[in-house]
Structures
1.
Amino acid sequence: MKSVNLARKILSNKKLSLIQLPLIIGMGSYISANYSSSFKDTKIFSEAEKPKYKKQLNKEQLKQTLSPIQYEVTQEKGTERPWTGIHLDVKNPGTFKCVVCDQDIFSSKTKFESGSGWPSFYDVVNSDRVNLIEDRSYGMRRIEVACSNCGSHLGHVFDDGPKPTGLRYCINSASLDFKPDVNKN
């Protein structure tokens, strides 16, 4: 737990540059050069491939409807500061949806505390809800997670998660809306 608190302190430093932040994020967890066997049955698009999206986005309209951080994260592949996201500590039963198109992406049942500073999930509600795209930015080799409906950037997935999948979907709160389950009594 001490290492988690130390990482939290380092990563919450507001003086980190935009280059330092991704490098620090990649220090503790990365995907090996040949990608994990956890992804063996999953299509991973190369950076050159362009997945087809059902919903076409109007960037000017999105700038009006999304907050600045939501736009930066979802449309410019940004990363919110660790331990600042509104969904980091959400523990209520419910569904996490794409903030842009409202598609269900994650269930709170698969959310876990990873110590990374971002909401983490070990699985998606359905594998067709996300596209996995090779990401070689910042000198790292990672797998980007994008909404399969609208193409919005959600975060990245790593192969250091808990059972049963062994995956850790490290997701920006700014890319998600949370819809609590309605208790029908």
Note: The chain has one domain: 2-180.
2.
Amino acid sequence: PIRSDAKACRPDLVIRMDVDEVSKLDADGVYSEVIYSNELPWRLCVNSENSKRTSNKKMIGAYVECNWESESDEWGCEIAVENAVISRNNGEEKLFNRFLASGYTLKGILRLISWNDLKDPNKGFVFNDRITVECRVYIKKVTGVRKLNMIDYTTPSDGHNNIVLVVEEKKLYVSKDYLAMYSTVFEDIFFGKYEEKIKEVEMELYDVKYQEFIDLLDMIYPTAIEINARTVSHILQLAERFDIQYVVERAESYLIETNKFKTLAKLAFADKYGLDELMDHCLALYTDLAALKTLKPSPEYKGFSDKTKSAICDKMMDL
């Protein structure tokens, strides 16, 4: 059961989500928007399961996830959680679990409720094939988490912004000087050969996704946000496009250290973006000629540059 002191106080975080077409939910489920609390990202996932674990009965599952993209095991949190389904008849709720989590990294805790318990139309939990799930999180303690400097690029800041970048029709307020300090492309645009053409206070960027560009800005500005498996590919692509060597080096260091990608995938990154340190790191992992020979039939190998293929052949000769 949940601790009485947590139950009596106001939750630190409430995630409420309407789930449409609940009868068609699958194991992948649907996710809420990400909400930040105590310097950590939180989200709710609702899915369904029909397996041996559920005695071959359809169950609706609710995950509360925290800091799911982190690859560190040096942080943790102590929390109490309530999950509830809200009735559309009178606002009453069906509280289907309370639980405590402490002393370990929280990356997903599943709790299930029977579909048969929900679908009675008189109870109003399912209406027009929709349910409303509410997750209430009581955060008792967080350890090993650095304070994030979350920057809102969508709001102008006096004295710090002098250009508006428009990405997918959304405005981002940034500093010319700050971007130019890291990017030779932005330096040329704002202060070099294109300066006379950029007199307006707004400039549109094409062929860029809004969230991906924010991820890039978070690497340049002092946010303490780290590169992860979800962001590294588009961050590298944008860092190369705008010639931001500092970000390329951060991405290369991440790929060397992470275990989220297989060596062949890392070789593909190294080949595509000319990451020599990553290339050397990957080739050093091959200590067996037979393992190295498995590269040749792979689709990735066929796309490698002649330089990378030559480096692989040289490694084979050394073995």
Note: The two ends are 59 Å apart (CA to CA).
3.
Amino acid sequence: MSWEAMLPMGIISAMIFVMGTSQFVIHTSIYGKPKHPRHDAWDRAMDARDERLKEEYEKSQK
């Protein structure tokens, strides 16, 4: 009778899949790129530096 456990396990697995996929789709649609796992203070500092460098480069091209 172990097959009886397959239906609830399938439902649970499907719901976990739906939750993860919805988070991915929402984040990607808002920010335009997938979420970076383990985004810590160093990564945020590097993102800020990259943005500043891009702005400086664009200003120098004008």
Note: The chain has a mean pLDDT of 92.
